[in-house]
Amino acid sequence: MEATIQTKNEHPRLRELKFTLHRIFRNPSAILGFALLIFFLGVAVAAPHLAPPKYEHAPYQMPHKGYSPTPKAPSAEHMFGTSSGQYDIFYGIVWGTRTAFKIGLFVVGFAGIIGISLGVIAGYFGGWFDELLMRFVDIVWSIPLLVLAMTIVVAFGRGLENIMLALALVEWRWYVRVIRSEVIKTRRQEFVEAAKLMGVSDLKIIFRHILPNSIYPVLIMASMDMGSMVISASFMSFVGLGAPKGYADWGQMVALARNYIVGPPSDPFKFWYTIAFPGLAIILFVLAWNLIGDALRDAFDPKLRRR
Questions:
Q1: How far, CA to CA in Å, does 29 sit from each of 22, 32, 225, 293?
Q2: Alpha-carbon span 89 to 63, nearest angstrom
Q3: Confidence at 132, pLDDT banded by 50, 70, 90
Q4: pLDDT value, residue 145
Q5: CB of 220 closer than 8 Å to CB of 291
Q6: What domains are defined for the chain?
């Protein structure tokens, strides 16, 4: 009885927050997703201790002994073995975790800021700006993501930073469309009309009423993009548009193993470690964000929220 009274006396936002967290963490897949994410965060934070840099001025440069193109199997000296060029795979996996977070956070953050800003303005005010922006987005949408991103990288020059910038300049189109459609629906609600009649400024209405009620689909999409952008960047590194050789990047590590995915006919799995470890890191990183995105969708979707 006392618990019921205390719940009723709670602030509505606090009560909704507790309900949302309960919805998220009662989902086993969400628990697995957050556990994987915490694991990768721990590896990224502890990278200098797990794999001390050989080059202090360039910690992302994978150390190597010799230049033999033939990989070496896991041993006491190299826990995960070495790739082509004798680059230490364990070192690349550990420091590649930081690279993955850097790619995901930059691309999603940059694309999200641009897309949300433009989408809110277009959806709330409409008019010529909305029409012009949507026609431009339609043109951008006619070109596949990777084709457009690779074109931008080729124009600006290869490198991880240019890959991140290219993906951000392409990915913002998703956020514009999603947030615009949500803003258009929200601005027609009675509480927004009431705020306008009371003389509340457009800026306050956007930040106090429009964004809080429109942002949830964008958060879900951003969580999914954290993983998908790492895959896109890995692919571009695989085809040779990424960082210089030896940089701790999972995509480049897979590229280093391309000639050893299948071993000699007598032992086709001889060099399994060259592709298995970086491939597994990519799969688990993407899986973590996808599971979290699914959990956020179940928690925020009005059709599923109260089930």
A1: 14, 5, 18, 10
A2: 9
A3: very high
A4: 85
A5: no
A6: 13-305 (1.10.3720.10)
